[in-house]
Predict the structure.
Amino acid sequence: MLKNKKHYLSNYNYWLYGKHPVISAIKNPARKILKLCVTKNTIDFAKKNIGTYIEDKNIKIEILTNIEISSKIGINESIHQGIAIMVKLLKSPSIDNLINNIKSKSIIMCLDQINDPQNIGAIIRSSLAFAADAVITTKDNAPSESASLVKASAGAFELIPYIQVVNMARTLKFLKNQGFWVVSITQNGDNNIGSVAKFNKIALVLGSEGKGIRDINLKQSDVKVKIDMSNKLESLNVSNAAAIILHQLYINFN
């Protein structure tokens, strides 16, 4: 049994903002919403898109100006788009519960100390788009749930488990014992993505753009894969690399 980071603090609330993140959060039955702030220009938008959910969750609505919302949440009005909610952190599933609920074919993203919320958010979005079952990150040197992370995912954060673990190497070993093939994406890989098309369960490992996958985690690899590309560019942004690999695996799986 593995323990993941305690990802839910009942007394920790934060402001989430922007139309896509707010809509996704309010529609998420697992998300506790404490307050909704809108402007006169966005209240009709809110009622049209999430009015039923607002009523069902008995969410308190406060009508403010853009400047007042900015002052309340500390974010420029061009970013919050005239709508913000105060939320509680989501509760992450344990690794054991995740494994118990996966399908016969599965992809789990394992991110080794990728610390940029924008990259993580983009990877979460691609993971949802291409039917991955979860995104696992390290507890250290990786972002916990926050407004910037959720916004970067464009609402996808609400729809796919985001789990932080203390020891990635131990997590990869556990996944291998559960029938997953550990596939590491690295410039030094000696296989292309087509070589793993036969695998039904894949733990897809990516590292930070600077350091890559740490040796202790790379040693857990069953297969090391590189992305075929022209010699005009040395490497890709990690979120772009993730999207390319996930798309190819999605085609293979379907």
Observations:
- The CA atoms of residues 197 and 249 lie 7 Å apart.
- Residues 13-88 form a domain with the 60s Ribosomal Protein L30; Chain: A; fold (CATH 3.30.1330.30).
